[in-house]
Amino acid sequence: METLNVQLGARSYPIFVGAALLNQANFILSEQLTGKVFIVSNPTVAEHYLAPLLATLGDRVVGTYLMPDGEVHKSLATYTEAMDAVLASGLHRDGIIVALGGGVVGDLAGFVAATYQRGIALIQIPTTLLSQVDSSVGGKTAVNHPQGKNLIGAFHQPSAVLIDTDTLATLPDRELRAGIAEVIKYGAIIDADFFTWLEHNMSALLARDPAALQYAIQVSCQSKARFVAADEREQGQRALLNFGHTFGHVIEAATGYSEWLHGEGVAAGMVIASYLASVMGWCEASEYRRLRALVEAAGLPATAPDIPWEQWQQRFSRDKKVKAGQVRFILPRRIGQVEMTTSDVSDELLKTAIALK
């Protein structure tokens, strides 16, 4: 087991990464498990991993809530159902919400923890690659609104993150590839050497090689932890973690949160952003081609579906990075370096990049 840390002063917390950790959760999380526990999961994850977690936590657990599976259910209606279940369990203010599942479960459970009795402790136990390398770390919690993704939420840091790499054994191939999109993102925005490693080891990741997966998770979490420590509430450089997301979120929302996985939208979004940067002269065309090649090697989509331009415009205007009425785009200068800009991004350039095939 490797232990990483998110440095946030008095609110710092550990990230535990390794195999066969779930059965040892009570021991590994002994410092964080100071009260009664309520577990939020979904039926797909619970079928494999709820019983071992219940066994190790024993009489600490006062209740569970299994939300429907899928991004479309990360809604205020599901939040209300989860909150009703927590209230019915009698969980006190010194209690703990445990999120057992992927990013959807983690986001919703985190929002419940952030708002139940004005905020209680949260432990993230992510079971998908995407949640292990991204959404479980950093304290972003939210539910979606029909007008846009993650528009209703709060920053609420967990007390700990427990990443059991064995949970990836039951992850469908499509979900694994979606998680790899976020792994690619870290190489693209901050770590050119890691990007090169991914180019040489993509086949090992797709084959679920344990050593390759653990290394990719550790490097990704270390990168995410540095951004969070430097800019917890995304007032500056943490926004660079949203590379590909401005376009990806539009794709997810426009297709009803049911056709495209989050990582698939991010993958296409990174390619679109890179192509946009190349035609603007921000980066060499070779950098765009290199990123697109890695996305395609991961079996991920590199182009957007057909969405009317008016929908792109409407959803861009609701993006959380909008400032003073201007959409801020995150674009690469080269592999390993991205920057944010509002200048020189005309509608015609955007249309050209979005239409890329």
Describe this structure in words.
This protein is α/β, with parallel strands linked by helices and 357 residues long. The protein has helices spanning 25-28, 43-57, 76-89, 103-115, 129-135, 173-189, 192-206, 210-230, 245-254, 262-280, 285-297, 309-316, 347-354, and strands spanning 2-6, 13-18, 37-41, 61-66, 96-101, 121-126, 140-145, 148-155, 160-164, 329-334, 337-341. Helix 3 crosses helix 4 (103-115). It is globular. The N and C termini lie far apart (43 Å). The mean pLDDT is 95.
Keywords, separated by commas or semicolons:
357 residues; alpha/beta; Rossmann fold; Dehydroquinate synthase-like, alpha domain; 7-stranded mixed beta sheet; two-stranded antiparallel sheet; 13 helices; 11 strands; 46% helix; globular
- Share of residues in strands: 15-25%
What's the count of strands?
11
N-to-C order of helices and strands: EEHEHEHEHEHEEEHHHHHHHEEH
Give the CATH level 1 class of the largest domain.
Mainly Alpha
**Residues in helices, as a percent range:** 40-55%
Output the radius of gyration. Answer: 20 Å
- Which parts are unreliable, with pLDDT below 50 for 5 consecutive residues or more? none
Q: What name goes with the CATH superfamily of the largest domain?
A: Dehydroquinate synthase-like - alpha domain
Mean pLDDT: 95
Question: Which fold name fills CATH's third level, the topology of the largest domain?
Answer: Dehydroquinate synthase-like, alpha domain
Number of domains: 2
CATH architecture of the largest domain: Up-down Bundle
- Decide which structural class fits the backbone: alpha/beta
- For the largest sheet, list the strands in their spatial order: 1-2-9-6-5-3-4
The main sheet comes to: 7 strands, mixed
Question: Quick one: overall form?
Answer: globular
How far apart are the termini?
A: 43 Å
Query: Helix count?
Result: 13
